[in-house]
Design brief:
With 339 residues, the chain is an alpha/beta fold. 25% of the residues lie in helices and 27% in strands.
Length: 339
Amino acid sequence: MNNLFVYCEIEEGKVADVSLELLTKGRSLASRLGCKLEAIAIGTNISGIEKQIFPYGADTVHIFDAPGLFPYTSLPHTSILVNLFKEEQPQIALMGATSIGRDLGPRVSSALTSGLTADCTSLEIGDHEEKKENKTYKDLLYQIRPAFGGNIVATIVNPECRPQMATVREGVMKKEIFDPGYKGEVKLHDVSKYTSPDDFIVKVIERHMEQQKSNVKGASIVVAGGYGMGSKENFGLLQELASVLGGEVGASRAAVDAGFCSHDRQIGQTGITVRPKLYIACGISGQIQHIAGMQESSIIIAINNDENAPINTIADYVITGNVEEVIPKMIKYYKQNTK
């Protein structure tokens, strides 16, 4: 009762990274609240899936294993979560802001009239004072996300309705094993008690998955370009620099919108979140939407002809100059020192 639940996405017998990241965050939030961390695994032939989940600190894993639960379809997964939450009365429920989470989350929150905050960039526990009612709410989930086009960072609370629900994009939270030998309780549920035959009316006949073309998220070095690069041709310089350094090319939304780079390499609030050891920002002004996706990089180098660019305030090193002049010099220098 009143524990913290994480919905785990499963693809080909493997728990998705975004779910493991949420388990990591959920473990710290649950410890702060003094409650249990519980995970939900729904799929077909997923026996033993708890072995992937327990090391991240889950105290209980609820397993729903039956034909028709994979690939994901809306109705059975929604029925399972709604009925399980009615039984267990969680205080917090988290899921990834993926294509599945963005479909499932609103359905569940609507059925439970609980509310939902999408695309959170941070989750914390704190108190909230309602001055008009002269009432203080203890230990609420602070659901933090950019708002109004990214111009402000909003902290959203849900004082009354439960569960407090939020979705978080992949890469926003860190994925860390809590204890390799951690063991919790496994609860195997009878799927028929949580669903109806009508939930399985939609059958997946054929399914195609497009593989990700780039690995910007997993790269230890990222060379990112913004609108200040000026053209798609100039992005070739970034590709050459990344190749010399053994890294990947990323881009700001402005650069993607201008057609300089493909969307799968977009970094920021509406793209991916990266935490490389080295992040080189080229011709990027550094609006909050972009910074949200790369601010936890270990070392940040900013190259910009505007010495007052916002990116400079978070950069470890700032090179003020024209990217078309600076980047070729960096390529030449690094080539000389890697021979």
